[in-house]
Design goal:
486 residues, alpha/beta, Rossmann fold, 2 domains, six-stranded mixed β-sheet, 18 helices
Length: 486
């Protein structure tokens, strides 16, 4: 009998089906990796198993006991523990006291730990490599040690099943290897692990089996090699075939001078490292793509260029440093970002959103740019009186790009413009991008959909775990790195 058995699990949020008829099992000592792009249902699945989210259909059984619909504290007492993605220790208590609190029974009469609780807390601290830090305050710990503290708290209840959410986010390569070894050692204790992480390569090297999800459904399950080579999985992550053809043909060198130069760029969020020594160049008239899986650091890179996040290293625009420039100053200089989240004014009409982008233009320039945007996206001309929040996802994406174009940017940054779009809408976006290229607009494109990016690029950078892993012409991508992308 499997230790954890999930059968026909389903969850709907209004009209969105987050998880659809999902079934899987976990045996003692087994590590199962749950992978999939953003919006595939991974986090919802973890919440359903832990009892944080009540399921609409299906069942969750642990050791033969049906836990479906149980409250999270009851699920935890029965033998399931969750290691959260974000570290939230009690900052006014030591590392040892944080672990002791996790060991205390659920009773109002157990606020003061027994001496055996302190002994057990020290054993757990040693188990995760924190024995030298037990008297330290959490805020004095390196980021990787905060992740170890979260693992210590999760195993303090002696769970049979451990749910681990994004354990590798923000870790360096060396720290990832050490944390992988910690998780792997849970096999020896016969604990079952369900692990979610965007770092597909890290998951692949650690787990016994992989379950891949897409838009709420299971699309593949098996050994890591079987799942990573599955055509459907590769299509979901890569966006289609990478086998040559005119869409990946090299376009030749672009003679324009450098507009954007990024050198040795490093970004930290608190103590988590998001970018580590990134170098990148965009020349005038080019379309340069930065491709990589979710969590690789693409959005962080763009936000650093746009002045939204603090950074180390150098960002130069037309030869001048952007160090200390505000987002407004960066935009006025000619760098305009169309964000992944679109950030439209939902209660404003299409016309008003476009007007917000072009408010600084003269009447004549505004009319010309407005006509250009509507020629790129004719559907926006029909929707001008409609509020942005009532548009379809594809129409919202067109409006977001159109609003960015209304600023008449020298460099247009497009962050995941194809995400969540139907194939027909993606073709409309592709046509618009090619029209921009024909007009000589310089574009920096961020995409998880590699096939989409290669179709339009002059040059490609592959970003993995905050580092540039490869760069070159689009026609060389498949042969050079396509097979090892996952």
């Amino acid at each position: 009998m499997s230790l954890l058995k999930v059968t026909g699990l389903g969850k709907r949020f209004g009209g969105l089906i987050a998880v659809r008829d999902l079934s899987f099992s976990l045996d003692p000592g087994e590590i199962l990796g749950l992978i999939g792009p953003n919006g595939s249902g991974k986090s919802t699945t973890m919440g359903l198993v832990m009892g944080v989210i009540p399921p609409d259909t299906g069942s969750v059984r642990l050791g033969g006991t049906d836990m479906t619909g149980w409250a999270p504290h009851r699920v935890a007492k029965h033998g399931v523990s969750l290691m959260f993605q974000h570290s939230r220790p009690l900052r006014r208590h030591s590392v040892l006291e944080n672990i002791e609190l996790a060991l205390l029974p659920d009773s109002l009469w157990n606020f003061v730990p027994h001496p055996r609780v302190a002994r057990r807390a020290r054993e757990i601290a040693e188990r995760v490599g924190l024995e030298e830090f037990v008297e330290r305050w959490p805020e004095t710990l390196p980021y990787a040690h905060l992740r170890r503290l979260e693992l210590a708290k999760a195993i303090a209840r002696d769970p049979q099943v451990l749910l681990i959410d994004e354990p590798f986010a923000g870790l360096t390569m060396a720290e990832m290897r050490e944390f992988s070894a910690l998780i792997s050692s849970l096999r020896d204790e016969r604990r079952a692990v369900l692990l979610v992480d965007h770092n597909v390569k890290g998951v692949r090297a650690l787990v016994d089996r992989v379950l891949a999800m897409h838009v709420g459904s299971k699309i593949a399950e098996g050994t890591p090699d079987q799942v990573m080579s599955d055509p459907t999985v590769r299509s979901v992550y890569l966006g289609g075939s990478l086998d040559g053809g005119p869409e990946t043909a090299d376009r030749g060198a672009v003679a324009g001078p450098p507009l954007l130069q990024v050198e040795s760029l490093r970004v930290h969020y608190d103590r988590a490292q998001a970018l580590d020594g990134v170098d990148l160049e965009v020349r005038e008239g080019e379309l340069v793509s930065v491709v990589g899986l979710n969590g690789a650091g693409k959005t962080t890179l763009f936000n650093a260029v746009s002045g939204f996040v603090a950074h180390e290293g150098f960002i130069r625009w037309r030869g001048e440093s952007l160090d200390g420039a505000t987002p407004g100053a960066v935009a006025r200089a000619g760098i305009v970002q169309c964000p992944e989240s679109r950030e439209l004014f939902g209660d404003m009409t299409v016309a008003e959103n476009l007007e917000m982008g072009g408010y600084h233009l003269s009447r004549e320039d505004y009319a010309r740019q407005h006509a250009t945007v509507l020629a790129l996206f004719p559907i926006l001309a029909e929707r001008q009186r409609q509020t942005a929040r009532t548009l379809s996802g594809g129409e919202q994406q067109m409006l977001a790009i159109g609003r960015a174009l209304m600023t008449r940017p020298r460099l247009l940054i497009l962050d995941e413009p194809s995400m969540g779009l139907a194939p027909l809408v993606m073709e409309h976006i592709s046509t618009a991008i090619e029209a921009l290229r024909a007009e000589g607009v310089t574009v920096l494109l961020g995409e998880q959909n590699v096939s989409f990016a290669l179709r339009h690029s002059d040059r490609v950078y592959l970003l993995e775990q905050g580092r540039i892993a490869w760069q070159g012409a689009p026609g060389a991508f498949a042969e050079a790195t396509g097979e090892r992308y996952l």
